[in-house]
Amino acid sequence: MTITTTAPAGSALTTRDEYADAIGTAIRASAAYYGSGDSLLDDASFDLLVSLVQAYEERYPEHTDPASPTGKVAGGAVPAGEVAHTAAMLSLANAFDPQDLRDWEASVVRRLGAPVAGGYVVEPKLDGASLAARYEGGRLVRLVTRGNGTSGEDVSHAIGTIVGLPERLASDVSFEVRGEVLLATAQFERANEIRAAHGAGAFSNARNGAAGTLRAKGRPYTVEMTFWAFGAVELDGAVLPDTSHAQVMAFVAAAGVQTAAATPAGLTVVATVAEVQEQVDRIAALRARLPFGIDGVVVKLDRLAEQAAAGTGSRHPHWATAYKLAVLPLV
Questions:
Q1: 249: closest CA among 136, 140, 122?
Q2: Does the annotation mark 125 as catalytic?
């Protein structure tokens, strides 16, 4: 099935019919991705479509449809899962160009009431499926999908199949890591070889393959995936570093969980938004040579106190944004 919209890609929605069609397309794309994992609308195209819907709603608020995906985690297509999240697991707001990035900085400064003092973290936005992994006493006990942001699906059957998420850590620490699970390029190729050997169809692309594999049960074969952490939450009274995001990620890495710092793109802390843009351009230039898919670059306030002061909205934190890169053909 090919998903299309009435309005040409990138053009403004001008009629209620185009608006309704765009909402339907977004909901179907989200439902397919978070269900079977087989959505033909890539992440960047989905974000663009939602931005067109949002722009229409800002022009004609009286036309706003309650079913609209704007302001909803996963586009509102994912029902509540069986496992409550320890803390909300939200989407990120998007930036598409240098001006959007500067506008985001200005909004952060307004919320803080002062210039950003603690710098910014820059890391790749891995193109896979968001996952929460809970460690208790150093043992991996549960995996939960992002779901609707407040609860997700228990996919603990995948424990032991994901590189970067060891079943046992080097110490008896307890915490929850949040990150992205995906099929690296070599894993994607191997996965399709394995599926062909078992008479199954090839994955259409690595992103959908990861989403489908994570939820699959009872297959007569195993598909290996890879995880990189981008955040952590305290559990059972355990204490994480309380100064900066970079320190939290260093703590998680020292415990044995793979983080975004271990990717070729790395995790970089810079002082200014101009330096952020330089890092975005650097990662964009690396994109074609990376051993996995990315669809953007994540920018966050590094100092945890400034994150708390900037606050969080209903769908996304105000202290972070995803700088989306140009759409590439699905692989």
A1: 122
A2: yes
* pLDDT tens, position by position, 111-131: 999 999 999 999 999 989 999
Q: Do the Cβ atoms of 23 and 68 come closer than 8 Å?
A: yes
CB 96 within 8 A of CB 280: no
Domain ranges (residues) in the chain: 16-76, 83-324
- Residues 114, 98: Cα–Cα separation, whole Å: 21
- 30 neighbors 77 (Cβ within 8 angstroms): yes
Catalytic residue among 125, 217, 300, 324: 125
> Which CATH number applies to 16-76: 1.10.287, 1.10.60, 1.20.120, 3.40.50?
1.10.287
From CA 226, how far away is CA 277, in angstroms rounded? 28
Helix residue ranges, H only, 226-294: 245-255, 273-286
* Domain 83-324 = CATH 3.30.565.10: no
Condensed to tens digits (0 to 9), the pLDDT of residues 56-74 reads: 888 888 778 777 777 655 5
